[in-house]
Hints:
This protein is of the alpha+beta class. The protein has helices at 3-8, 12-41, 43-69, 76-85, 112-119, 128-142; strands at 94-100, 103-110, 146-153, 164-170.
Amino acid sequence: MNNYECLSSYTKEELINLIEIYSKNWLALDGVWFQSIERKFGMDEAMFYDREAWRRFTVIEAKRIKEFLGLGNNSGIEGLSKALRLRFNSNINKDKIEIGKNVLIYSVLDCRVQSARKRKCMPLHPCKSVGIIEYDGFAKTIDERFICECESCYPDISDNDCACKWKFVLKEKK
């Protein structure tokens, strides 16, 4: 039996569950490699490599989602909203999207990474510098007109109702 035949044998609900399992597995791998560097070389070194990994991964992820959705180069707020919903971590984090005129606010209400670190009595992941690279790169790959701003992200929390909050402004080209 090939992989297509194997996957075809599952129900829609089972396949959705499998996507969640794959997302959790990916996040576990991300955490395991990060923590191995953090233990051996410290947080600063781990953050350097985390930023470098996300600089490349976020573009790869966005390109694949953009192609899957059939989004054009200027898909705007609607395109970004659809693409954010299909990111691997959107399957396992509780999030919220708010849309206004030329603005999209994306909030992660419950972050599995930070929750896991709290459970393990580890310091929170100082993810703002990584998030700036991740979310800006993702949005610009979906539509290059986006400007991404961090509204709240550890260690600079300004909104205690979420783990992080990102503002995407669609700038029209002149």
